[in-house]
Structure formats: structure tokens, C-alpha cells
Fold:
Amino acid sequence: MEIVGKQFIDGKRVAESGITFSSYDAATGEALPYTFFQASESEVRAATSAAFRAFGRYRNIPLEERALFLETIAAEIDALDDEFVRLVMRETGLPEARIRGERLRTTNQLRLFATVVRRGDFLGARIDTALPKREPLPRPDIRQYQVGVGPVAVFGASNFPLAFSVAGGDTASALAAGCPVVVKAHSGHSATAEMVGQAITRAVERSTLPAGVFGMVFGAGVGRALVLAPEIKAVGFTGSLPGGRALCDLAASRPDPIPVFAEMSSINPVILMPQALKARGAAIAAGLAGSVTLGAGQFCTNPGLVIGFQGEAFEEFAREFARAMESKPPAVMLNSGTLQSYLEGLARMESTPGVERCAAGPGETKRAHTCAFRADARLLSATGHPLEEEVFGPSTVLVALENLHELVQIVPTLNGQLTASLFAEEQELAGCGELLAALEHRVGRLILNDYPTGVEVCDAMVHGGPYPATSDSRGTSVGTLAIDRYLRPVCYQGYPDQLLPLPLQDANPLGLRRLVNGQWSEGPVPA
Amino acid sequence: MEIVGKQFIDGKRVAESGITFSSYDAATGEALPYTFFQASESEVRAATSAAFRAFGRYRNIPLEERALFLETIAAEIDALDDEFVRLVMRETGLPEARIRGERLRTTNQLRLFATVVRRGDFLGARIDTALPKREPLPRPDIRQYQVGVGPVAVFGASNFPLAFSVAGGDTASALAAGCPVVVKAHSGHSATAEMVGQAITRAVERSTLPAGVFGMVFGAGVGRALVLAPEIKAVGFTGSLPGGRALCDLAASRPDPIPVFAEMSSINPVILMPQALKARGAAIAAGLAGSVTLGAGQFCTNPGLVIGFQGEAFEEFAREFARAMESKPPAVMLNSGTLQSYLEGLARMESTPGVERCAAGPGETKRAHTCAFRADARLLSATGHPLEEEVFGPSTVLVALENLHELVQIVPTLNGQLTASLFAEEQELAGCGELLAALEHRVGRLILNDYPTGVEVCDAMVHGGPYPATSDSRGTSVGTLAIDRYLRPVCYQGYPDQLLPLPLQDANPLGLRRLVNGQWSEGPVPA
Structure:
């Protein structure tokens, strides 16, 4: 295992700035024995230029090659040894089982995108054949498919050093779409990023693809140059609201604005119906405490707001939940900055009028203690959404409303969210129609009788939602639909068969399901 | 025919500002006998609030009702009488056949979106069923479909008073997606807008839909309030680059940025291969002159740049083309402002070093004369893209390059374009592979042996392209894929069948083609 610490540009490792920085042990804050070099602006441009040059060839390789490339990346990452796992653990403070699980999630995600590439429906082939005798004007032959938008800039998240980072969902979906990727390595796990970057580079070489298909730059502040680089045509980001919004504003300020898919801030409300609490309040309390504290609460789907209804069932639940939260040990966070932000978030909550702490777990230096608050329901509708400012860590806020009607009125005023969970018994679900309709307009994923943490990587997943959950509710950053963010349609009019891209040729050589003259068809174009 | 001139808000006609303006005869500049009222900011908000209230019900009506609504709008517009046609002719200066043709295009477009709504594949239903026994963790049941983003603001274009205006493609696709629409009436055809607005209002009433499904506001400067209204969730625009960019910047500045699909500026290069010119140069010259001058050149697909290769075939073509252009009569433009801009554009071209006028048609007061220029090929790569600044009107620029290789080098540096046309004989097409690959990355539609004017409304059409052709190359504003701009995915996790939206229920009651556990299926979910 060799950590070079230099930029990954067109298959070479380079560093011209001379500005260096370190990576740290998450638990102790101790510097690790690696040196990283801050990328210069010209290095960023070198990486994006290489990506653009690679785009010309990469977007046109056969789909099977593209799928094999994704699988080769997966194999290279799976082959990283125990030393790698220990390195990730040290840099992030996350336990071994989580790292191993997250690696499998990451490589299975790459493999899932390989199946998407092979299935080919992302190509969205549509064919309208010529109608030479139509009156008053003949119709020309027109054929449409989806192509990659161009090189994509990927900003990984601190909290998923593998699954939402260098080879995470944004990279996998962009590569699947035919777009080269330039990653801004997250400074919270620079060494992890380097090892994964090396794995991808080996896969590029084994697949004999142009080296510019993958690039990576290190260092603070390089994101600006990356988003402004003219060769970059879209951005994927997972992280904080201020960070994501800054990238959106930068992208919008370009001479040619580009789309940014930033997954940012969500408090993932959990709604507890009275009969569910009566029937299984203790189990819900235990499960919810587990969800709030899972991974030290460092998930974008962490339940940061628990909404119940006034009455004994909710009070009993609140007591159980407080006990469960207080039984949780303090946890190492991703880094000292994350811990500091968490403590500031708790202090902000405690100083908010109408908010009271109702549980606090045991503390320890350099670790995060669990915390729960009770808040006055009026704060849900208060200016500035004080209960919806994300406190990233193992804490949550409980609120008791008067009744379901009050909640239905409030939901449209809530910020956009990644998820909303509803715990309800069968007999009370019938009365939840209005609530579900309101929630559907404010969230990306509606969950019944389960916690929001745990995001399945599959075709049907939506990990998105209205602002500020994401910067564009029309995308998802988990699941196979994520590929759509990096595609654009193009059409050919009047071209002879042999000059058309394969997905559009008469014989349907790729065996695609295509919309031909308004009918779905898996066969050739009828003569 | 009664022109009220007030805002269309929640089924009522209101005007509180007292600020009035007129509509004008395009040919004479004379004011028409109608008074229009500038919308106040509170009226804009009243319209967007009504749209938001209507969204709750409208997005959940049965698909068949939604399709019938679109067809009812079409029927109401088709039923407008000859007086209406004369009104549009007067306001826009466009001839009768064009207006009647454009009306048919507009209503057929609405009917086409009705078939899209009935087909239901825009719902993008995806189902991953539960795997309760999966190790290490069970998979929950997850089901995804697409829902409307919310109320959409539509800014119509001056040059298509019907097909890209009040009931044009943006409105049709937004309504098809389940989104209410608030239109900013184009001040170039206020009375036309009013008549179409009345037709839509009648259709809303006949369909017993909430009145807020359609709103319209009049007046200069109201666009700002419309784009900033919190209820608006997306914007559709067709018009100038400065206008479109201003809306993009406004939308990006919102507390919650929203997507803008602005179709703005394109010069639609036409590439003439030598053998095609040898074989049929005169026909191409005549056809091209027809395309450049069609509708007084007031099309976003107007061919504003003609690229050939040095040699006698091109010179002969250029002479033919100049003759053809000079034989065209002067034409009434949409309004005096459009004519003024055209004349300024011609003056800018004439004063550009390296550009020479090579043809000018006969002139007449208040009418636009045709014009053609020859430009030094080096200007194609010059800073500021002087040949790519759109001159909206019946003019174009001819450029002769040395060879195909030079063109392949230049294409990636060109601005994004709606279209690129290639005229080539069969035997020279084989050498055009590199050119096509380069063009595919810069345009939305590649055309062979035909002119860019004439945009078929069908499933496969792409009327889009990289900036500045549009603000987001991932959309099209013509063709059925336009609906995707106004949709976002949402998923349900763990919900029982009867609480799921119809598109996601086990039995597949809508008969949709769905992605079920990674396989496309038109049947029920297997037990």
C-alpha cells in the first residue's frame, strides 16, 4: 500500500503546487504518515481537459465494454486488502463491519450499473419513421437516444468514504452514462480516496480505456476551479447545505450554466400514529433510538424530527425513547470538525426557546454523546424552520401535535426532505390518505413502519427530494435512476441506417425496447 | 370576441394595477382597440397560489381525465373562428396559412400529449419487491413513479403565437405531467394570448377542474415576480438569450432554486459537402434560401451559418444562393422591435472585419429585406464567436473552410446549437464519421440533406441542445419527451397495496409497462 498523495491526471500522478496537507486519525486526531498535495488550478484544468479528450472515445465504446469496466472497478475495490480496511477505519472512525459492508454496497452498486448498461433502456431509444406521403407535409425519419452530457465533477461525502465517495453512486452512474469523472477527494478521508483512486486507475488500464476517463484532485478550495472548468458538464455532490448551495451558485454563474445534483440537508421526519404507539411503542422507541444513533447519527437519512400526537401513548413512548437514547454509548465521529459542528448544533437547540433536552447519553472526550429534545409544536411552523436545521450526529427532536389535521396543515410548509416515515397500525392507515398526499409533495421517499436509515440500492430507490434535501428534485443519487442525471437526448433526422448509432438502427442490433411510431417494440423497425 | 385584457386568476378576470398598455398591428404599428392591464405583484402571487391549490387535486385526477382535458383544450382552440385568425394575423404579421397551420400544430400537440398521458410510460413505474430472507439484511418493498414537480411558469415566444405560447408545448407538457400552469402572456400578441387563455379557461370549466390549473398574467416586468413566486417549481421559456439567461439567474437566486428550461439562441449550422453541391447545388441554394427566409427568418431553427469547402462548387453555390436570396421580397416582421433588432444585427455583421455582404434583397419601409454575408473562416474560431451571435431575421452567413479536417477541429469550439444540417452525397458520407461524432456533442438534432426549419412534433424529436441553444441540454421543448422536464421521482417503501398510487399497485390496474425486479413487465407483480 503506497499513498502518493498527488493528483490523478490522465493516468499520471502529479503535484506542482508544493502545498501539502495531512490526513488524520478520526479517533485521536493524530496526523497519519501521509502527505497530500493541494491541486493547482492548472492541475484541475489538466484533469478536466484529459476527461474531455477521453469523453470522445469513452462515450462510444460498446456497452459491453462499459459494463465490464464498471465490474473491473468493483473487482479492484473488492481486492483491496485488510490493510486498506484498517486505513479507512482509522481515517473515518467507522467500525470494521460497517467498512466491509459499505465496500460491498459500493461494489454491488457498480455491478448494478453494469446491468443497467447491458439492459440499455437508459438509452431511451425512440424512432418515428418517415411518412413520405403525409399531407400537407411529409414526415422525415427521426430517431432519438440519450448520450452522456460530458465530463462530470464528483464531490464525495465524508460520511460514506466508499459508497458516496470516489467510486460511489455519482461516479458509478456517470461512468455508466458514458461520462468521464473528475473527483474532488474529500479531505476527511484522503488516503482512502487515494487507494480507491488507484483501484479505479488499475481498472482503466486493464480495460484499455483512455486514462482521462478517471481523474482526481486533492485539496481545499479546488472545488471552485473544478466546477468552473469549461469541460465539466455536470456536478454530483453529497454534503452540507452551505457547501452544496455554493457549488450550485458557482455552476449557475458560469458563462454556460451546468446542472448540479447536490444531496444536502434533510431531517427525515418520523410520524408516529397513536395506535402504533399503543401496540408497539417500546419496540418503536428502541428501533428509533438505534436509527438515530446508527453510525454516530452521521447519515443524511438520520431521523432528526419525531412527530407524535398529544396523549399518554406518546408520553410513554417519549420516556422509553429517552431511556433508550441514554443507554447508547458515546461514539467517535468522522473527524474533529464533525464533532465540533455536532456540539454547536446541540448548543443551538438548547438555546432555542421552546426546546428542552429530554435525554442525554453518557459523554467522553472526543466522542459524541447521544441527545434528544422535546420542542413546542409551534416551532414547526416558526419562521426560519428552527427544528429543520440539520444537527448532524446522534440526536433528534420530539414534537407532539394535537391531531392529524394539524399535521396535514403543517406538512406543505416543511422543507423538502429525503424521506418521511410513518408508523401506523393497519386500522389507522385508512385515515392517512391526506397526509400521504401532502408528504408525497415534500419528500423523495415515503416509508411505512420502518426507519429512514438504510437506503437500498435498487431500481426503485429515490434518494432525493425537494430543496434543500437536494438541489434538484428531479434526480436521485442512489439507485439506477441516478444515471438519468448525466444523460441528454439527441436525435438524428434522415440519416441512412449504417450511419445511425447502434441503438437506433433498423435491425435493433442491441435488442433494445424502443418506442417505434408510438408503440413499444423489442424487434426491428417494421419495413 | 371580447378582449378583456385582465389577468386570468383562479377562474376570474382581475386587474388592480391601473397600468394599461396596447397591442399593435405588426405591419402598420397601429394600436389595436384593446386595453391590457399590467399585473401587479400581488396578482402574480394570487395566480401562483391558485395554481398551487389546484395542484393538490389536479395531479391526482385519473389519467383519462387529464387526457380528455388536453383534448378539450385542443377542441376549444380549434373552434376559434375566422375573426380569431385575422386577429393573430394582425398582431403578428404572419400569413393566414401559417396561422391556420400553426393552430393545427398546436392542437395536434395537445392531442399527442393526451396519448402520452394515456400510454402512461411517463410515470416511469419501477417496483422492487421485498426480499425478507435476504442476508445480511432483508430488502423492503420499494416502488417508484414520477409525479409532477408543481406549478410551472410558462413564457411564450413572440415568433410562434400559438405553438410556443399560451397553449404551446411548454403548457401542454406541463399539464400532461400533472402541473398547473401560470403563463406570462407575450406582449407581442396580447390579444391572441387572451383568446387562447379564454379557450383554455372554457376547457377547465368543461372538465370541472379547479380553476387554478390555468392562470395568465399580462404586462412587462411581471416575469420576475412569477419566477420568484415560491409556489412555482419550474420554468419553461422560449425567447432571446438575454431574456432566458435573466430568468435562469433569477431562478438560481431563489432561496430554493428551481429548474429553468429556456430555449434561447441557435444559428443552426448547415454544412455543404462538395459532391452534394456538384450534384445539386442549385436545388440546395434554392431550398436554403427558402429556409433562411421562411416566416421572415423568425425561427429558432433558422440557418444562420452555412459552411462549405473552398472550391468552384461552393463558389457556384454561393452565386446561386445570392441570386435566390435577392429574389425574395421584403417581409413584415413580428413587430417593430423585432425589425429594429434585425437591422442592428445586419449592421453589426457589416461592421465586423472579415465579413462582407454578398446579397441583399429589395427593401421597403417597415419590412425586412433579405441579406447574406461571406465571412473569413478564421472568424469561426475568433474570440466572442462573432459569427454565432444570432441575427433574428431573413439573413445568413457563408463560410468556406479548407477541408473537412479543419471543420472537425472547429466543431467542438462552436456554441451549443439546436440543430446541425449536413448536405452530402452517399459516397461522401462514409468520410463524415468524425464530423458526426463531433456534432453530436454540440447539438440536439442532426439533420441529413434537409433544412433545419420545420420541427416535427413527435416522440423522437429533440428541440434542445447545449448552452446557449438551451439552458439545460437534458430537456427538449418539442416532442413528447418534453414532459420529463416537469416530473420528479418519488418512492414508497413498505406500503400495503391499497395505499399505493394506482401505477404501483400489484395488479397493475393501469396496464403500464413497469420495471419489476429488474425485468420489464406489463402484467401484475408476480406473487
